[in-house]
């Protein structure tokens, strides 16, 4: 006796819990692998899963078994040239000695499986990348200064556009109106009919033909009026009402500001780019919509597209305040802080005209910081800090938690610096 | 759907897609043929699943339900990786020793594969599960699914009560010992979920009482009265020393479950669950060659019969032969594809040869198998299937002809010799020795170290001493330390392991490591 069961519709992620348990158990290993990978990955392919390898010995499940050595007899197939009593040099490497499971044999092809490899999904990968990080000031914009609205349902109204018509409610209204309007007419009609009947049943001698004609006319008139009651009328129509409700902004804009003066090499830019990219991915997980604005500067600032931002070269001196000024203008023109969450990431090698750094600080403290959610500054330099760093330090002191700065010396630092900037802080 | 009397051209028109109607049709045809060959099976529950579900099933080592543990997640990830790379094709073996016998068909498979899997799993493996003495002795097919459900629920209740980490640590430790969780010489009691739940609570209290009696801190008088634990599990050695256990115990998990001093009742129950799982898989570990050989032989025979009876066409039979050939391929030892002896190949070759010896014996066969030559092949087949395991099956039935065909040879690798030596090849002088060596290779007692509980020092420092009987000077692998660490976690006190050669201790392991010397 046999029967078939179609299980295809059943759940398919029976192993999901076990998979999570495994990832949980080897968090440390996986995190290390993820960190390496983030630092080495080319910029464009952050958005895929990652193949993770963990040394096999770290995750082995030990059991009592035989080790190498002693006396082993191993039977293998495929003998070609050996005869009994042949003595052969012991193959170097793995396979000799048998591993006690009857495999391994005399060949040294023991395909060394000493790494356990598996693939993280993109979601899992990013979970590990951003594990323990949080966006500072993620609390949504206060409702007061918000002009962003969202339509929500707010009952039923008599006015509206046809697209929002509530058919059920409209028909119900019409039905009620029809009953109400026809009732007196129907009553009158019934009375008239009863009278007519009465009149007709009278003895032919007593009948009043004028009365009959009058009643017949009355009945006709009433029937016409009943038929004239409209099936549906404009009064009946009801519409779903929508009200505009202010809502926290779900949009963010990320400004990438970078120094492209002669002192910034391509290596510097690569580091900066990775940093921007990490920030972008991170924001993307928290906001529904993200816009990017690229501002580059040397002595003058310019808004450019991504390609130009990262790859075209300029030379010349450096005036950081030019970029901050442009930033201010762009915010003013396109991103009213009431609607947008504003993030700025700035990368530079720390060079600036000496007297410009003070201007920068003033610009930040007086105009920009009030409107920004977060300002992250990374200085990519192995050298000692210059005036800009010191001035920014003062800004950091003035706006703790909103302004952060770190130094990156080489590519390997990016991830740790990023983590440092966005480390989960206990609520103050 | 095709009528069974349909002529072959109709069958050809079917293509490679399947429907439940065609599956039913072929299932019935296979059942008819299987009955002719006296294949006695449990009822079949054939489940059609997707490839993802198949990966899930693989990952839970073929248990339809299992408790949660990271090691199954690891299994899943490696299966998934292999599948993505396109390395995993075969879904033959996913059949569960239960009543009804559950087998899986993957929806992506072609009609040929579905027929093949039904013949292989639902009639081959299924009849093996029902007939083989090891399975009959060690597993209870009617109860296993219920028991698995019980185990899963119990483990997750423990996770809720005591935390996932505590349960995970315990399971890790038990898994490390699960190969030593079987009494080889006793018929185990059958497992059943209903009784299990009923008895579980009384067992908890009873067990704990027993353990308490054993570990009571007040020593009983030397001439122990009848209620003293000496009467139950300990004995006095000839020198008058108290010895517990009175005889060495090979079932480490059972010993732990009953005697570990510090385990809580729920922990003992979890140990028991792992032990029962180990017992369930015990026959499978010992009958791989036979089981696969048997199933492969029958799918081969049944497919050919279907073709001969006109039920399947040329297209399907050719597709089948192509698949079958790769299943029973045996790469030579020096091939890059070599990965040990292929149990499908060896088992199939042996069963095929048994049939040949019965039907058309040569003089050589009459010399080697005087009783078998010329006998009824089907009788001999069922006898072989029912009464052997890999070790004894090879010992009994590996014919010179199969040795020649596979060109088997034995290598002696002695670490005291700087060269390795060819001990025997496929010639007259070698057949017997090759056969013996191969048989030993499948012997569980040689594959796994022989380790037994020797002594629990209940009167002294409570340390537990195990003994490893060294065989052919083969030492223990370094994994011995992590395993001892797990054992220590279960036992709660120092754990020692002595490697014995004859009566001499050649190596002594201990956990925690002895303080005075960092002996490794």
TrEMBL record, chain A:
<feature type="compositionally biased region" description="Gly residues">
    <location>
        <begin position="92"/>
        <end position="103"/>
    </location>
</feature>
<feature type="region of interest" description="Disordered">
    <location>
        <begin position="66"/>
        <end position="111"/>
    </location>
</feature>
<comment type="similarity">
    <text>Belongs to the UPF0229 family.</text>
</comment>
<dbReference type="Pfam" id="PF04285">
    <property type="entry name" value="DUF444"/>
</dbReference>
<dbReference type="InterPro" id="IPR006698">
    <property type="entry name" value="UPF0229"/>
</dbReference>
<dbReference type="InterPro" id="IPR036465">
    <property type="entry name" value="vWFA_dom_sf"/>
</dbReference>
<protein>
    <recommendedName>
        <fullName>UPF0229 protein OQ287_01120</fullName>
    </recommendedName>
</protein>
């Amino acid at each position: 006796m046999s029967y078939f069961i179609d299980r295809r519709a059943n759940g398919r992620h029976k192993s999901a819990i076990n998979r999570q348990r495994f990832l949980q158990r080897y968090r440390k290993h996986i995190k290390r692998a993820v960190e390496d990978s983030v630092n080495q990955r080319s910029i464009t392919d952050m958005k895929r899963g990652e193949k993770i390898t963990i040394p096999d010995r770290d995750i082995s499940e030990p059991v009592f078994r035989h080790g190498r050595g002693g006396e082993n007899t191993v039977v293998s197939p495929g003998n070609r040239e050996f005869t009994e009593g042949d003595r052969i040099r012991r193959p170097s490497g793995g396979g000799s000695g048998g591993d006690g499971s009857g495999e391994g044999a005399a060949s040294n092809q023991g395909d060394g499986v000493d790494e356990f490899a598996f693939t993280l999904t993109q979601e899992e990968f990013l979970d590990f990348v951003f594990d323990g990080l949080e966006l500072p000031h993620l609390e949504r914009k206060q409702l007061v200064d918000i002009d962003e609205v969202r339509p929500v349902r707010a009952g039923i109204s008599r006015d509206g556009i046809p697209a929002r018509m509530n058919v059920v409610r409209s028909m119900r209204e019409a039905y009620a109106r029809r009953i109400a309007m026809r009732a007196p007419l129907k009553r009158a009609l019934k009375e008239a009919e009863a009278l007519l009947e009465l009149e007709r049943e009278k003895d032919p001698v007593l009948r009043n033909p004028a009365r009959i004609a009058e009643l017949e006319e009355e009945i006709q008139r009433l029937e016409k009026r009943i038929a004239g009651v409209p099936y549906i009328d404009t009064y009946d129509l009801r519409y779903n009402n929508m009200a505009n409700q202010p809502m926290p902004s779900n949009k963010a804009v990320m400004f990438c500001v970078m120094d492209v003066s002669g002192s910034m090499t391509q290596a510097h830019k690569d580091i900066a780019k990775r940093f921007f990219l990490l920030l972008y991915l991170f924001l993307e997980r928290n906001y529904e919509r993200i816009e990017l604005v690229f501002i580059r500067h040397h002595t003058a600032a310019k808004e450019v597209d991504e390609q130009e931002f990262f790859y075209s070269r300029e030379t010349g001196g450096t005036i950081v305040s030019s970029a901050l000024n442009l930033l201010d203008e762009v915010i003013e023109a396109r991103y009213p802080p009431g609607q947008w969450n504003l993030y700025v990431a700035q990368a530079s090698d720390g060079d600036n005209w000496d007297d410009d750094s003070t201007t920068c600080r003033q610009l930040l403290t007086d105009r920009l910081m009030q409107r920004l959610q977060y300002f992250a500054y990374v200085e990519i330099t192995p050298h000692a800090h210059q005036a800009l760093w010191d001035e920014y330090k003062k800004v950091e002191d003035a706006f703790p938690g909103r302004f952060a700065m770190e130094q990156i010396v080489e590519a390997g630092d990016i991830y740790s610096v990023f983590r440092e900037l966005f480390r989960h802080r206990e609520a103050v | 759907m095709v009528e069974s009397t349909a002529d072959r051209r109709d069958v050809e028109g079917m293509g490679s897609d399947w429907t439940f109607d065609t599956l039913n049709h072929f299932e019935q045809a296979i059942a008819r043929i299987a009955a002719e060959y006296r294949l006695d099976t449990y009822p079949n529950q054939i489940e059609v699943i997707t490839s993802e579900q198949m990966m899930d099933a693989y990952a839970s080592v073929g248990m339809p339900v299992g408790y949660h543990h990271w090691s199954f997640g690891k299994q899943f990830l490696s299966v998934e990786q292999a599948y993505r790379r396109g390395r995993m094709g075969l879904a033959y073996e996913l059949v569960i020793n239960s009543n009804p016998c559950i087998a899986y068909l993957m929806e992506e498979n072609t009609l040929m594969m579905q027929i093949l899997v039904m013949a292989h799993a639902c009639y081959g493996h299924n009849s093996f599960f029902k007939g083989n003495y090891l399975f009959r002795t060690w597993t209870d097919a009617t109860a296993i699914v219920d028991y698995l459900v019980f185990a899963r629920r119990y483990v997750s209740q423990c996770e809720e009560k005591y935390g996932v980490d505590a349960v995970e640590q315990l399971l890790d430790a038990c898994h490390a010992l699960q190969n030593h969780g079987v009494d080889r010489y006793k018929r185990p009691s059958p497992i059943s979920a209903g009784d299990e739940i009923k008895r579980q609570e009384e067992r908890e209290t009873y067990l704990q009482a027993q353990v308490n009696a054993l570990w009571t801190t007040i020593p009983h008088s030397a001439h122990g009265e009848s209620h003293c634990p000496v009467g139950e599990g300990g004995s006095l050695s000839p020198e008058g020393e108290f010895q517990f256990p009175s005889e060495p115990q090979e079932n480490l998990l059972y010993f732990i479950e009953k005697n570990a001093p510090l385990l809580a009742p729920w922990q003992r129950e979890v140990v028991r669950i792992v032990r029962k799982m180990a017992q369930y898989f015990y026959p499978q570990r010992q009958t791989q060659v036979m089981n696969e050989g048997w199933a492969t032989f029958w799918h081969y025979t049944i497919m050919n019969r279907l073709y001969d009876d006109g039920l399947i066409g040329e297209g399907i039979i050719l597709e089948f032969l192509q698949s079958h050939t790769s299943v029973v391929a045996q790469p030579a030892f020096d091939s890059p594809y070599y990965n040990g002896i292929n149990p499908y190949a060896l088992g199939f070759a042996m069963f095929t040869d048994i049939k040949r010896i019965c039907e058309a014996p040569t003089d050589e066969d009459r010399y080697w198998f005087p009783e078998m030559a010329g006998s009824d092949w089907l009788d001999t087949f069922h006898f072989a299937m029912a009464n052997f395991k890999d070790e004894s099956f090879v010992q009994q039935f590996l014919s010179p002809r199969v040795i020649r065909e596979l060109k088997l040879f034995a290598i002696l690798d002695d670490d005291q010799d700087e060269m390795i030596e060819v001990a025997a090849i496929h010639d007259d002088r070698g057949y017997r020795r090759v056969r013996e060596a191969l048989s030993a290779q499948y012997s569980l007692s040689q594959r796994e170290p022989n380790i037994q509980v020797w002594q629990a020092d209940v009167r002294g420092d409570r340390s537990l001493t195990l003994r490893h009987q060294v065989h052919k000077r083969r030492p223990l692998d370094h994994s011995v330390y992590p395993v001892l660490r797990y054992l220590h976690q279960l036992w709660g006190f120092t754990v020692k392991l002595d490697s014995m050669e004859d009566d001499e201790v050649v190596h002594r392991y201990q956990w925690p490591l002895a303080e005075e010397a960092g002996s490794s």
